[in-house]
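Usage

Read records sequentially. Each one opens with the input sequence:
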Amino acid sequence: MRRTLRQFSLTMTQVVKRSDAETESSLGAYERERLARMERNRMLMEKLGVTSLSNRLETITTVREQALKPIGYSKRTPKAEKRARNSENEVDRGELEPRRRSLRVRGIAPAGAGTSAEEPKNSQLQLKEEETSRGPFLEDQTFAEVALENYGATSESSMVNDDYDRSDVDDVDGNKDDGDQKSLCTRRARLFQRAWCGAMACTSLSTSEHLAKDPSRFHRWVLDEASGFFKLVPARIYSATMHPRLDAWTMMVGDKAGHVGLAVVPRERVAEHAVQVLCMRVHRDTTAGMAPRAGSANSQQLLTVSYDGSARLLDIEKQTIQTVLVDERERIFKSIALSTENDNVFWTTASHRSLGGFLVRHDLRQSQKSFDAFGISDSRVYSVSLQHQGAAGAVPGHDGLLAVTTARDGVLIFDQRRIETGATRRSTSKPLFALPHERATTAATWSPSATRLLTTCYDDLLRIWHYDGSECSLEHRFVHNNHTGRWVTPFEACWDPATDHKIFACGSMNHNPVHGVDLFHVELNKRSVWNRLTGEPMTAIAAVLAWHPAGHALIGGTASGRVYLWGEAHGSEGVLAA
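and closes with the structure output:
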């Protein structure tokens, strides 16, 4: 303000000094009126003494500011001065050992004195353990070493595993267990092995093929609160499968934390045939895919893949866990498909955050780090489904195709023989067919006859593609809400193995009036849901589904680690045969 007044006063003085002749000649009427008005204002300010008051106030302020400024004044203190000032207030800690890790981890007393002679050795072991804890399990393990002691009970309403035989608490050498955690885990594993082997030794079940293919059988399926609701794993279920045995329902699920839950549910709920559950920490990250090995010699083995970049083989009879595949390039494994030609070969999908999607082939007879990886997409890949070779109705010479789902490229179909022997391991292999989808596809499964492909997409559509040997054409579309959100595992629609390509199931976001599983019939209803599997104890979304290989039962996994089981009671679909 003071500066403005002073400039205004100088301007007025300069204007007054101009000659009247110049003003009259160079200025217009408006400018002359403006100058006259400014002259009147200047005279008024001089009369009131505003100019002298402004000059006096400016002089007083300048003197006060100079008196407050110290010698060598600067707006910001130099860094050297700050360090010097801080060093005066700090205690000299040169003699103390730097504590970058806790004393407890390094094996030192809390006071800092009396260091242990084994401190360097313990520190190296701790650092090595911290580094290896991020990757997969490399060493072989037993069920008792990785079992969870709190997951030995079975259903929600009946804790039958607590009534165990006292002989089960004896270890191998005949010594009594002391009741600690290791003993409890050993007992859980032994009880499950007894239930598994006992059920396998039971009489076989001959099933009527006509009843298995009857679509009306779903109306007889019930969800019993006592025998159809189980807690198998602690975290959200990401993968599930069922063993092909018929004497008992055998469920296998994997969760987000790397656990694998196994359960043997007899088809007759009697006291001497109680449900047995075993939960183990098999992986360090999400157990994303699993598949039981086929064949009589390997019928008691389970293959699992995980986000930690490893695949492990579980032998239920021997109670062992073996690491069969390890990837050192930080790729995550998502799904698994067993080869129909060679029982020792399996396929899995792998994704890298910057390298894109891969299709990995591994032979169990090779070493852990010996496998073939084929780049197939620049985006993330999800599931893989292998067409059954020699299936009834399959096109001769066009079986054994691999269907892989991606985040941006839709569904890619490859010929596994061309990938193996063709031009080989290029950066991106060329697919036989590319099935376009508007958004990311989460699942694609071949029908048992290998002529239909069922896909699940985030565009809220379930599609059925018909393969005739020369092309894949879109045959049906079903509207279905597939937006599961953050807390529910993405849906994966799957075929009913008993009715071939007529009926399929998918998880449902609809909970009005109750939660359930949606069933679709291709021939009877081509637009909406044909039937629903539900029950009174069902209070959550069954997102992960798995059929019994013969179509006699269906399980659904939830985000809480619980599993729902639908199926007819023992004797409804078959009779015991000696």
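Summary fields computed downstream for this record:
- The domain at 147-326+489-567 is CATH 2.130.10 (Methylamine Dehydrogenase; Chain H).
- Residues 29-48 form the longest helix (20 residues).
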